[in-house]
Specification:
alpha+beta, 3-stranded mixed β-sheet
C-alpha cells in the first residue's frame, strides 16, 4: 500500500480493506511507518517508536480495528514492560508493570501499537513542549503548537501517521489538540471508559481516556471498543441500547442548543473562534435545530480556582511518586511543575476539600442549564495556536521563580491574587473546556472552520452526563453538512508522500 493511498482512508475503512483481503495488515503498518518516517522529523509527535514491533505484532483478527495501527499517548496509557515517561525527566526510567485498561481493550480491538506520542510534563499544559522531548509541532504550520496535552497524538493523526491516536482529557487535552489540528475529539462522560487497573478515577474524576480521530465514525467505533466498566471501578455508567457505531447513524431529532462565545473567565476570545461558532450555529439552524444565545450560570473564577487546586494536588502527588519510587530529584522537573508541586504541598487540606466539594456547584448549574437545553455550543479554545515557545516568556518565568522563593520562605499564597494570576496565565487561551471535566459531562470539538491562513478552528459542544450518543449523532450531521476530511489533502502536499 502506497503512502498516498494509505492517507485516503480512516481506521474503519482500513480495517474493512484488511478484513476483505484487499490489503494486508503488514502493508498498512508499513505505510504508517513510512508516513512516520516522512513527517515525524518535522513534527516531533512520536517520542517512543515501536515500528519493528508493530510489524511483527500479533493481533485479534475478530477485533473492530483488526490490523490497524494506533499510537498511544505517553501519559497513563501504559503498556506492560514499556516506558511511560509522562513527559517528565522524573519518570523517564519508569517501566509500566501492567497494561492499562485502555491498552488492553485497544489490543482486543485488533489495534497494533506503532509507538507513543509526546505530551507536556504530566499533561499540565495546552502546549506540548516538554524539556524531555522538546516541542511537538502543528502540521498546518510547524511554527505553531499542536496544543496539549495530547499534542503529539493530534499532530500524528492530522498528518496521517495514523488515522487515530490515543488521548486523554483532564482539562481539554483531547478537545484542544482536536481544535488546533483539525480533528474530531470527544471527551466521554466520567466513568464511560475505565481508568483501571491503576486507579479508579483519573484526576479524581476530571480525566477521561479516548482518541482523536479524522472521522466521527472512527471515534464512535473506538468508543464501542473502549467503553464499559472493569472490575473494581467505583461505579458503572449505563450503556446505550445499541453500539455507538450504529447509534451515530440515527437522527438526534430536533435539538435546542444554547450558544455563548464569551469566556467564562472574562478573558479575550479571538474573532476567528467566535466566527467558527456563529457559522456552526447557522448550519445547525439549517439542519432544523433551535439555536439561541444562552449559557450555564456559574462563577468562572471559582471554577478556575477549583481547577488549579486539582492541578496543585495532582502535581504534588506525582512528584512525590517519582521521588519515592524512582529516585527523582527536584531538578528532574520543570520550573512550572516544581512551582505547582510546592503550591500543592502548601495548600491547606481544608482548602483542597472545599474546592473539590465546589465541583458539585458547577454540576448543579450545568444541570439547571440542561433542564432547558439539550446541548451548549461555544468555542473550543479562546485563541488560535500559540507559536512554539511563545508562552515561556521572561515575565512568566520571573513570576514562577518569585513565587517559588516566597513559598520557600514559608509564605502561604493560596488566598492571594498571585494564584489567580497563575490561573489566568494557565487557562486564558483555553477557558471553555474545564467545565466538562469538573462536571464529568461529555463534550466534543468539531473542526467546523478554517482561517484565511488555512488553520483549523474547532467548535465545542457539550451534553448531559451519558450523552455521548446524541453528541455523535449531531457530529455526524455536521460532518455531512460541512465535510472536513478533504482538508487533509493539503497536509499531503506539505509533507509529500514518498510511497513504498
Amino acid at each position: 500500500m502506497k503512502q498516498s493511498e494509505y492517507l485516503r482512508y480512516d481506521a474503519t475503512a482500513l480495517a474493512d480493506l484488511i478484513r476483505r483481503g484487499e490489503v494486508t495488515s503488514r502493508e498498512v503498518c508499513e505505510a504508517a511507518v513510512e508516513r512516520a518516517t516522512t513527517v515525524n522529523g518535522s513534527l516531533n509527535a512520536i517520542c517512543f517508536p515501536q515500528f519493528s514491533e508493530a510489524l511483527a505484532q500479533e493481533f485479534s483478527k475478530q477485533g473492530t480495528f483488526a490490523g490497524v495501527p494506533l499510537l498511544l499517548k505517553d501519559l497513563a496509557q501504559e503498556q506492560a514492560g514499556r516506558p511511560c515517561a509522562y513527559g517528565s525527566r522524573g519518570f523517564q526510567n519508569y517501566i509500566a508493570p501492567q497494561d492499562s485498561e485502555f491498552v488492553r481493550r485497544a489490543r482486543e480491538g485488533g489495534l497494533l501499537f506503532l509507538g507513543r506520542t509526546a505530551t507536556p510534563e504530566f499533561g499540565l499544559k495546552a502546549v506540548t513542549e516538554s524539556e524531555l522531548w522538546g516541542p511537538s509541532r502543528n502540521p498546518w504550520n510547524t511554527q505553531l503548537t499542536p496544543g496539549g496535552s495530547s499534542g503529539g497524538s493530534g499532530a500524528a493523526a492530522a498528518s496521517g501517521i495514523v488515522p487515530m491516536a490515543g488521548a486523554n482529557d483532564g482539562g481539554g487535552s483531547i478537545r484542544i489538540p482536536a481544535a488546533y489540528n483539525g480533528l474530531f475529539g470527544l471527551k466521554p462522560s466520567r466513568g464511560r471508559i475505565s481508568s483501571g487497573p491503576m486507579m479508579g478515577e483519573a484526576w479524581t474524576g476530571a480525566s477521561s481516556d479516548h482518541v482523536v480521530t479524522r472521522t466521527v465514525r472512527d471515534s464512535a467505533a473506538m468508543l464501542d471498543v473502549l467503553s464499559g466498566p472493569a472490575s473494581g471501578d467505583p461505579f458503572v455508567v449505563p450503556s446505550p441500547n445499541e453500539a455507538y457505531a450504529g447509534l451515530m447513524q440515527k437522527s438526534p431529532g430536533r435539538l435546542k442548543i444554547g450558544v455563548f462565545t464569551a469566556s467564562p473567565y472574562g478573558t479575550e476570545v479571538a474573532p476567528e473562534c467566535v466566527t467558527a461558532v456563529e457559522e456552526t450555529a447557522r448550519i445547525l439552524e439549517n439542519l432544523g435545530h433551535t439555536v439561541e444565545y444562552a449559557r450555564p450560570e456559574f462563577d468562572g473564577m471559582a471554577l478556575a480556582r477549583c481547577y488549579l487546586g486539582l492541578y496543585f494536588g495532582e502535581v504534588s502527588a506525582m512528584m512525590a511518586k517519582a521521588k519515592g519510587q524512582l529516585g527523582a530529584a527536584d531538578s528532574d522537573f520543570e520550573l512550572d511543575t516544581r512551582l505547582m508541586g510546592m503550591l500543592g504541598d502548601t495548600m491547606p487540606l481544608s482548602d483542597y476539600v472545599l474546592r473539590r466539594q465546589q465541583w458539585n456547584e458547577f454540576a448543579r448549574a450545568l444541570g439547571a442549564f440542561f433542564a432547558g437545553y439539550d446541548m451548549y455550543l461555544c468555542p473550543t479554545t479562546g485563541q488560535l495556536p500559540a507559536r512554539i515557545g511563545e508562552l515561556d516568556t521572561p515575565a512568566h518565568l520571573k513570576l514562577a521563580a518569585k513565587l517559588m522563593l516566597a513559598l520557600k520562605a514559608g509564605k502561604l499564597l493560596h488566598r492571594s491574587g498571585q494564584v489567580d494570576q497563575i490561573a489566568m496565565e494557565s487557562l486564558a487561551r483555553t477557558p471553555f473546556t474545564q467545565l466538562a471535566n469538573l462536571t464529568g459531562t461529555p463534550a466534543m470539538s468539531v473542526p467546523m472552520h478554517w482561517t484565511a491562513e488555512g488553520l483549523p478552528v474547532g467548535v465545542h459542544l457539550g451534553a448531559p452526563h451519558g450523552g455521548e450518543g446524541v453528541l455523535l449523532q449531531l457530529a455526524a450531521q455536521l460532518e455531512e453538512a460541512a465535510p472536513w476530511f478533504g482538508h487533509y489533502e493539503r497536509l499531503e502536499k506539505a509533507f509529500p508522500a514518498t510511497g513504498l
